[in-house]
# Entry
Amino acid sequence: MNLNNRFDKSADYFRMPHTDAELSILMSERIISWFPEIPREYVILCIGTDRSTGDALGPLAGTFFQETKPKHMQIYGTLRKPVHAINLHEAIDRIKENHRNPFIIAIDACLGRNASIGHIITEKGSLQPGSALNKSLPAIGDISITGVVNISGFMEHSILQNTRLSIVIDMAREISKVLDSVDRSLTYHLSPTVIISKNQKPNKWTV
# Structure
């Protein structure tokens, strides 16, 4: 995916380098601001494969986030059970079967400018997986998180396969921290999952 024309300061768009110490705080706050007012089931869909270094960002992030034992989010796409181009349709069908009107955060690796390598980008809106490799896959997600793992322009498949694993692992860990921060901002009152801001006192429910 070429990101040359996507870097703006829109309220529905946010990016930071993965090395920024405030990444998990600021990005999780932006993501939470995009959550629906009425609670829904929250699903994390991590797209990619462990057979390609650069494309392993999604399943690595899913695995790291799963290790935090999230309470309010269901994860699809880990190193053991990756979601990729071949089984993406099947995974989407499974999500629809298992969740009623889910709110989906989709995660994937992408390619961009040299200066953008290492940046993590979140947007309000769906993700178009496989676009960097000219694959025709369905758009998915209410929110997307992408990590720029390498430079775009030519021989994208080879570039993804030869991406340094260290930066992919570091970026995946930071994405996991963002998701963990979001999950910790969610709490249950009766059955729905709701967001409680730091300055808001929990409502008292009368049954």
